[in-house]
Amino acid sequence: AKLGEASMDLGTRAEFQNLREKVDAALKRKVEQRVTELLAQAGKEAKARNFDAALGLIDQALEASPEHKDALAERSKVRKAREEAEEEEKSKLVAKALGDIQAALKASDFDTASDLLAEARAVGVRDKALQKHLDQLQQRLDSEAEKQRVVASFRGKIANLVDTDELEQAQETLDEARAQVSRATAFADLAEKIEDLTQEKEAQEREAEHAAVCSEIASLLESRDFSNARFEFAKALRKFPDSDEIKALGERVEDEEVAVREAEAAAERERQANEAIERAGAALAEGELEAAQAAVAEALEVDAESAAAVELGKEIHARVEEEAVREAARAEAASL
User: pLDDT tier at 183 (50, 70, 90 boundaries)?
Assistant: First the structure.
């Protein structure tokens, strides 16, 4: 009986074992089926680049079968794909940023370029070519920053010189700045301001010189120094060939010199006529009528319009006629 019972227990245990194995196999098939379904869904999500969703599905598969080789392999594959996709997206962002940085540099908008470069570096791209490009742009920005510092320093110096009207020194400093900073627009406004102020100053100086020259010529005319007046006029006309005022002064020099010469000549003629009239009067007083007539003729020859000579000539003529009458009377009396 005992042997029968033992044989029966062994049979029961074998059945239980077989049943357990069947159950385990069924569960394993169910888990495998679930894992296969989850991995298939994960594959679709990964293909659609929904990597986080794909990894979530793979994690569910690994919860069901932690050591599942396909699930572990798929997880590694999806993680790598996600990293590659993230790196690709970073590269696109950095590539776009590089274009924006180049555009900002071309527009001399260095602040914007610097901000964009900082954002591009923060992306953390691993592409060595892009990293090298970023480094090159950083060097360029550093160089531009140094140029800006130099430009700011020179602009401050030039502005101070312009404000104190030291235009020649301002121009020298501007030339020095241009030699050091090869940026066409860095000092364009200051260059234009210096040029405008220089032209204005030169115009003021020229106007002052013109006024001084005109005043000098006028002063020489007042003192009747015609020789120096002509000399200063000739110099002034070479300096200011379009000046109507100087041309008018030149005409005045000629007119006044001619007038003075004519006045002097008239005065000399009057002196000579008066001298001849005095001699005529003296001769008349002495009864020397011929000498008196000759002196009056000399006076009228020098000054034909001399009223004194004309009047004296009439008086002498009357005396001559009187003398002729007396002479005739004497001659008649002698004949009787």
Answer: low
- Return d(Cα 46, Cα 53) in angstroms, integer: 8
Choice between 299 and 3, residue whose per-residue pLDDT is larger: 299
Kindly give, in sequence order, each residue whose CB lies less than 8 Å from that of residue 245, ignoring residues fewer than 6 positions away: 210, 214
- What pLDDT, in 10s, does the model give residues 48-78? 999 999 999 999 999 988 999 998 999 999 9
Closest CA to 289 of 314, 310, 317: 317
DSSP symbols for 33-99? HHHHHHHHHHHHHHHTT-HHHHHHHHHHHHHH-TT-HHHHHHHHHHHHHHHHHHHHHHHHHHHHHHH
Task: Please give the mean pLDDT across all residues of the chain.
Answer: 86
What Rg value do the Cα atoms of the chain yield, rounded?
Answer: 63
Take residue 92 and report the two structure tokens written for it: 């696109």
Interacting residues of 296 by C-beta distance below 8 A, sequence separation 6+: 276, 277, 280, 309, 312, 313, 316
pTM: 0.45
Residue 230 tokens, joined? 């002509």
Task: Say how far apart CA 26 and CA 32 lie, in whole Å.
Answer: 10
Task: Kindly state the helix (H) or strand (E) to which residue 267 belongs, with its residue range.
Answer: helix 244-285
Tokens at residue 1, please?
Answer: 């009986």
Cite the DSSP H helix spans in 223-243: 226-239
Q: Which residues contact 300 (CB under 8 A, 6 or more apart)?
A: 273, 306, 309, 310, 313
Q: What is the arithmetic mean of pLDDT over 88-116? A: 87
Beta strands in 234-297 (DSSP E): none
Residue 195 has pLDDT above 90, yes or no: no
